[in-house]
Amino acid sequence: DSGVTQTPKHLITATGQRVTLRCSPRSGDLSVYWYQQSLDQGLQFLIQYYNGEERAKGNILERFSAQQFPDLHSELNLSSLELGDSALYFCASSVYDRGSGNTIYFGEGSWLTVV
Amino acid sequence: EDQVTQSPEALRLQEGESSSLNCSYTVSGLRGLFWYRQDPGKGPEFLFTLYSAGEEKEKERLKATLTKKESFLHITAPKPEDSATYLCAVLSTGYSSASKIIFGSGTRLSIRP
Question: What is the per-residue pLDDT across A87-111, written as a single tens digit (0 to 9) for each?
Fold first, then answer.
């Protein structure tokens, strides 16, 4: 168990709909990352937040948005869903430790199926 | 452009047959290189972080090494339970100095009993 919690684990929804994926990072981790993993592609970086502020943006569609709340949990909002959005969405969190440096831990992912 | 390339894409070994997986990278400022193991439908499981050329880390049958341009994941006398996709990722400083993690496409390792 990595300590990163994602909900829901599975989600089936129709095209055009909107969904929200939730992530609770490891206790004490300030950085949260979101990734998308499709069958035909590897892990694609979407966005990173650090202590509530957007830190880095990857290939995130305009239909997608995210935020990190004061309690450090994060939500990824996916709207106007298309069939191609079906994928495994991962959240990860990181902490910097003087001894081990940056360590990034992943949750078990949220399976999104758009029908 | 920052890039991470893993080879081979897939590797099939007999149990006990040692081999190495390669991760080559081109980034604008390396802050760390990670190895993960991923089982189908599961989240990547952290294995190692390497920071500087010459660094080595070991865990059971796995050993990770780092040079200025690539990293190797050596697997010694593998067992069927080592079958998984192994992912390499780099943490770099982007154009805006924001940190971002870039993943390779992975090596699918299959160990036959």
Answer: 999 999 987 655 445 678 999 999 9
